[in-house]
């Protein structure tokens, strides 16, 4: 579902005018698209933009583009100050709802891991995943249930329950989340067992990198 996002029309503006605009909490931007005769200069509210960047930076947006009307758009580039990291400018691109887009979706862990209850440490290896799908099918998040995950076990990309019509080009053997053993002194047998498991995991990962997938 597209997120409503407000934009105002603006003139191109000089560097000094754009600086004053930012000081008032307004960020300049541009909307590009094949259905637009020319790129459209816009401005957006800084607080609303920052909230969007924190929560849904890759979301499909429903924007009332000045002089054009409501259009589906996505953020494509955010320019920041190299020192303060404050946003200086933002680009949006008009989206064709009938063409697949490549974007990133946040990964959200759910459940109380058995391994964590036993003292293990949950470590997320991926915080978002790149997907390919129609704009209307972009999920808000990809949920990963870690409830049954034991110490030493992983959730791989291939284990993810992606929604219908959503695919990823990441290797199925890539680790999404793992439960690390608690930091303690291991006995000789435990150390040997962990070494074997690590070697087996490395072998599986190597096989995954060598495998070619043509169904995505």
TrEMBL record:
GO terms for biological process: translation. Keywords: Ribonucleoprotein, Ribosomal protein, RNA-binding, rRNA-binding. GO terms for cellular component: cytosolic large ribosomal subunit. Gene3D superfamilies: Ribosomal protein L25, beta domain, Ribosomal Protein L25, Chain P. It holds the Pfam family Ribosomal_TL5_C. GO terms for molecular function: 5S rRNA binding; structural constituent of ribosome. Belongs to the bacterial ribosomal protein bL25 family. CTC subfamily. Part of the 50S ribosomal subunit; part of the 5S rRNA/L5/L18/L25 subcomplex. Contacts the 5S rRNA. Binds to the 5S rRNA independently of L5 and L18. PANTHER family: RIBOSOMAL PROTEIN L25/GLN-TRNA SYNTHETASE, ANTI-CODON-BINDING DOMAIN-CONTAINING PROTEIN (PTHR33284), RIBOSOMAL PROTEIN L25_GLN-TRNA SYNTHETASE, ANTI-CODON-BINDING DOMAIN-CONTAINING PROTEIN (PTHR33284:SF1). This is one of the proteins that binds to the 5S RNA in the ribosome where it forms part of the central protuberance. This is Large ribosomal subunit protein bL25. It comes from Paenibacillus baekrokdamisoli. The lineage of its organism: Bacteria, Bacillati, Bacillota, Bacilli, Bacillales.
């Amino acid at each position: 579902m597209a997120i409503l996002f407000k934009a105002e029309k603006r003139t191109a503006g000089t560097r000094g005018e754009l600086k004053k605009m930012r000081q008032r909490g307004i960020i300049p931007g541009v909307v590009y698209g094949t259905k637009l005769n020319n790129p459209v200069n816009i401005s957006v509210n800084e607080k609303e933009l920052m909230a969007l960047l924190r929560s849904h930076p890759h979301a499909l947006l429903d924007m009332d583009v000045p002089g054009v009307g409501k259009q589906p758009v996505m953020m494509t580039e955010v320019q920041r100050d190299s020192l303060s990291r404050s946003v200086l400018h933002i680009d949006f691109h008009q989206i064709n709802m009938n063409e697949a887009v490549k974007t990133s979706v946040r990964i959200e862990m759910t459940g109380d891991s058995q391994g964590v209850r036993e003292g293990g440490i949950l470590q997320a290896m991926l915080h978002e995943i790149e997907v390919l799908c129609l704009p209307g099918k972009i999920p808000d998040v990809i949920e990963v249930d870690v409830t049954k995950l034991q110490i030493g076990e992983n959730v791989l990309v291939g284990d993810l329950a992606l929604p219908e019509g959503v695919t990823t080009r990441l290797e199925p053997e890539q680790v999404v989340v793992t439960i690390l053993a608690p930091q303690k002194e291991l006995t000789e047998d435990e150390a040997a067992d962990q070494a074997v498991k690590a070697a087996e995991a490395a072998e599986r990962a190597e096989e995954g990198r060598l495998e070619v997938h043509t169904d995505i």
